[in-house]
Amino acid sequence: MSKPDPLLLSNLVEKALSLGASYAEARFHSLRTLQILMINGAILGAGESLAEGVAVRVLVDGGLGFAATTSLSHDDLEKAVQRAVASARSAAPYMKRPIGMGPGRLGRARYSVEPLKPFQDVSIDVKVSDILDIYKSLELEKNGFRVGNVTISYVDSVEEKIIVNSDGAYVESTVPRLMVFYNMAATAGDRKANRWNQIGGSGGYELLDKLDVRGSMEDDVKSLYINLVKAKEPPRGKLDVVLGPEVVGLAVHESAGHPSEADRILGREAAQAGMSFRTTYREEFIGSEHVTVIDDPTIPGSYGFYLYDDEGVAAGPRVIYERGRIAGMLHNRETAAVYGVESNAAARAKDYASEPIVRMANTYLAPGDYSFEELVEDVREGVYIKKYMEWNIDDVRWGQRYVGLEAYIIKSGELAEPVRNAALEVTTKEFYSSIDAVGKDLQFFAGTCGKGEPSQGVPVWFGGPHIRMRGVTLR
Amino acid sequence: MSRMELAEKTAKLVSGLVDEYMVRVDTVDWLMVKMAHGEITVVQSWRKNIVGVYAAKDGKIGVLSFEARSVEDVVRRLPEILAKLQPSPFYAPLPEPTGKPLSFTDKKVAEAAATGEVSDKLEELGVARLGDAAGKIDFVHRETVLLGSNGADLGYNSTSFNGYVRVFRNGRSGQWSWTSTRYEPELARRAMDKAVELAELCAKLPRERIEPGKYRVLLSPMIVGNLVDSIVDAANAGMLIFGMSFLQGKKPGDQVFSPSLTVHDKPLDTSLPGFAGFDDEGVATRDKPVVEKGVFKGFLHNSKTAKVLGGETTGNAGWIMPRAFNLEVAPGDMKPGEMLEMLDNGLYLTNNWYTRFQNYLEGLFSTVSRDAAFVVRNGEPVACVERVRIADYMPRIFSNIEAVGSEQWQIEWWEVRTPTRTPHILMRDVGISLPS
């Protein structure tokens, strides 16, 4: 379906201002997805979804109101504006400090991600056939080890937006994405284990090969085999640990990115996704000089890609931790106003029905200059955790836990026997302070990051190279 | 266009293209008030039509979902999607639509949801008296129509008044939630009072660091609701088929948990917002035990999972995955004041989040406590602990139940998405972990 005339959105903004709003924005937002679901080599079904509508957000007397509707009729859109204004007005008496919109480099721009193979040019039977081929290539039985319940979910999507606000922003964008999610359940004797994984990026159908879904699944089958058949009990206590890029990426997302979201630091998400240790943390450093964490929405091909955020602010890289020092936060215009800084374009909304809130995009630990071999060779006794199978972190992003799916003993600088379920449980400061060397092999991984109420899952990448940690606790 | 017109139009468009179909249209008015630091951070409202289509042709399955201007735009792709698929191992003919309409709406909730006007209700609920508090309050009015090629022609209306608050006192916090189909200010105020009570008690007590190990633990209804959701997920036949259930290998009649644990799925309970008289295939719903006195009573099925695993639908359809409606954990006989006394020495954890399975098949998981968490000695809270982690096997800890409270709470929040009525539960020998 075609995008609406931008004038329609401008009129909504004008209408809101005429009803007393001091700020207004209107966003047309369309998200179309195709999903194909496979289980054990059979296509379970397929589906298409379309979430498309207009969101209106207004400030009235310092209160914030938001309304969304699927209808683009004149009457329904005017009602949405009226609801947003009425809502903002009911919030205003409760505000001790009125909400404001801080400065940001507002754009007047149009951009799109151009796929090499647009999804609509690839027939569904080709997509089905390619997914089945990936499944067939897997070696699912070996010496009493068996992988069953293999589920693959293929999702391609196209997200289109037009954002207009009363401060002069006008941004139109189109971003296609591909995502594959899979789960495998494996058994060996009386042992059982799962592996699920998500792979994604922005672009077209070419990503199925480029992101190497097949290679990833093959490698995960091997990881399950090692975990169930080969691995022994891990050592426990204080040890040196080498972490793989997958675990590093997840850790920086959880304990650098999330706690640096300014709305979380201010407590705006306190009852939902929680708060941040940074609200009360007064120290200058959080880690060693080897730690630099960046969030960058503009990485070409990334799953969290955008050039302008959902408030129309131009995006760029944002340094969160710099050489161990706590550096920046992620801001939308609301939090920028509180801190007296410029927004750095972190406002994202999942769909037309979602308010833009502070989000990550592509968060990663900056690479160093060590090879993997160099990281390992300087460890006398330790563990290498390559992949995780479970994680969680507390609601201020301080105490965290990662349990290894594939992990190995390190003895005298060399990888030795595999160990199962090594659990790294550390504080954020302990995690970043223990890093004494960083690899040069930066890799990215896809995820769907959850936050907000109603919950908003947005596409992100998280990444990093291999790192070496000294004297951390394995449980 | 009314929802019935929209449903009929969609059904007409689809019917010529497929062998079987179901069309579900939900018209939703929804108002959400979000708070932080005692301020209203945003008031959000939605009015939307959500249209879902299940379609089958030659044993192939397609599912459409749209919140959009035009039905035609989505439906036109259906023939292409179905033509290129293979017959689904999940396919089963649509069952007879035995369901009956079951409606309950509360005018006050519906009005607030439609107008966005809630100033009077915020005053009545006493939000301002909470001081430093965060949270959200929902007013939802949903009208549902279900049409199907199996003859289903059903509809129902419902309302939901739910929310949660997290109250802060001197750097400590307490959180609690409520849910109901009716506008019940006293229910909300009771939950708010509980959050205040926990925050204030924790603020008075010293902090204490505990060591990892096995503890006797009293779990609040907020935590029980979250963990019981996971148990019912494991009893979902879809999760079993997808290899994500620790009940794999179990059969109805197996004693899996403590005899003190009874969990019902209660779709016919109109006091909780998840109620429905029919499922998404039009089949009559029924209240049923999922676990009764610790005995696993059977998987939740739609017609498709029933065909794959053998059995019959339990009236829990989703079109692909079955689902529970409302959950109830049966009360025990331990009065509120007696639970801490019986705990004697251990931990009282009042809220949690981020429950993740290390191993779905074995039920090995961990979850992190948040808000007030107490060290209890001789039946008295004597200190508060910072965030700790329960790291254990789900079936094991629910086999170690020592007591179940007599007082139930109606819970629904970020970490408990299925409306759940549950008491406190006391367990022994629960694995507790934390960073060194």
Please describe what this structure looks like:
The complex is a heterodimer of chains A (475) and B (436). Chain A has 475 residues and is α+β, with helices and mostly antiparallel strands. Chain A folds into two domains: 6-230, PmbA/TldD superfamily (PmbA/TldD fold); 237-474, no CATH class. Helices cover 21% and strands 41% of the residues of chain A. Chain A has ten helices and 23 strands. In chain A, helix 1 (6-18) crosses helix 2. By secondary structure, chain B is an alpha+beta fold. Chain B has two domains: 3-199, PmbA/TldD superfamily (PmbA/TldD fold), CATH 3.30.2290; 205-278 and 287-300 and 328-433, no CATH class. Chain B is 22% helix and 38% strand. Chain B has eleven helices and 21 strands. The model of chain B has no long low-confidence stretch (mean pLDDT 96). Chains A and B meet through strand 1, strand 2, strand 3, helix 2 and helix 3 of A and strand 1, strand 2, strand 3, helix 3 and strand 4 of B. Strand 3 of chain A pairs parallel with strand 2 (39-57) of chain B.
